[in-house]
Amino acid sequence: MKDLRRYLALKYIQYLVLSSSNAVSTLLGLLGSAYTMILLQSAKVSSKSTAVLISSLAQADILVFLSLVSDVVLGSFGVSPSASSLAQMLLVANAHASCVLLSCVAFEAYLITFLPSESRPHRTVRNARLVSRAIWMLVAAECALFLLDDHLRASSSSVPSHGPLGLLFHISSTATALLQSLSYILGILLRIVNVYIYYKIFFSMSPR
């Protein structure tokens, strides 16, 4: 449907084109996600693997809404560092999950365009749900590691340099630094892959 294609275009611009989020793109993204979740409940939208991925993408913006609400509510009472970190992690989880889900939609579009028959057995609703759950589990583990590292850094003055807590702090800091570097590199690779996929699809559908 045209509305779903417009929504995907909006999300690609929001997460894979813009260097950073802003108030306008965030508001448009939230409104688009709310409309898409309502639209996907319609009988006019068939239950396919692409619809499952788009639904998970739209639901990811619930994290943005929760982050905004927590900032407003906690801001009126005085925000603690841990609360601020949690709100930031919600935004990180939303951005990372959305980027990967958008790439999954792009990859599926590539399969539909170039390998429709060969990929049909794998493009199922069940597989799409498994992929979505796996993405969310990985993102949740990533954010849990970030929160653990923030907590250890906040209490670093009381953590002994030697012993189990000191070792945990060192491992957490190293793993967090590696994961942040990996996330940055993966973000660049996803942008390149998405551009390549839609470049191929566009020219394959253009009149020759």
From TrEMBL:
It is a multi-pass membrane protein. The chain crosses the membrane at residues 12-38, 50-69, 130-148, 168-199. GO terms for biological process: phospholipase C-activating G protein-coupled receptor signaling pathway; positive regulation of Rho protein signal transduction. GO terms for molecular function: G protein-coupled receptor activity. The keyword Transmembrane applies. One of its GO terms (cellular component) is plasma membrane. It comes from the Eukaryota. InterPro entries: GPCR_Rhodpsn, GPCR_Rhodpsn_7TM. Its main location: membrane. This is LPAR6 protein. It comes from Rhabdornis inornatus. The lineage of its organism: Eukaryota, Metazoa, Chordata, Craniata, Vertebrata.
